[in-house]
Write a structure and sequence with these properties.
By secondary structure, this protein is α/β, with parallel strands linked by helices. It contains 2 helices and 8 strands, in the order E-H-E-E-E-E-H-E-E-E.
Length: 129
């Protein structure tokens, strides 16, 4: 359904340290690096969807979108726990610890955090325990 999702950063090196740590847990890796301008993550280099982190093209400061959350899918609940713990250890902040969110559906097990630039991200497993 998506080609790619993009979030901004003001410090690409810091963002790479954070996202290399957390996205590896859900099977994503850097498939494109454009100096200090952009990083693209995907499961395979020739496939979409892709997740991009970049300096804003207009040269302005990256800012957080109000109401925007990028969610990554985990294959099991342990990966949700690991992603959240790694995010916090890598400079992210907690926006909701791992746990069931039955108001979404009975098996929705997710966690919410913000990356070092303040972008809100989520990791979720939709499978039963």
């Amino acid at each position: 359904m998506f080609s790619h999702v993009t979030v901004g950063t003001n410090d690409l090196a810091r963002a790479r340290t954070f996202y290399d740590a957390v996205l590896g847990i859900v099977g994503l890796r850097v498939v494109h690096a454009d100096g200090d301008a952009a990083l693209g993550y995907a499961a395979h280099p020739d496939r979409t969807p892709q997740f991009w982190i970049l300096r804003p093209l207009d040269g302005g400061a990256a800012t957080v979108g109000n109401g925007v959350t990028v969610a990554f899918e985990a294959t099991d609940r342990g990966r949700v726990d690991a992603f959240h713990a790694t995010a916090l250890a890598s400079g992210g902040t907690d926006e909701g610890p791992p746990g069931l969110r039955p108001h979404y559906h009975a098996d929705y097990y997710g966690a919410y955090m913000r990356d070092p630039d303040g972008n809100k991200i989520c990791v979720v497993c939709h499978r039963p325990a």
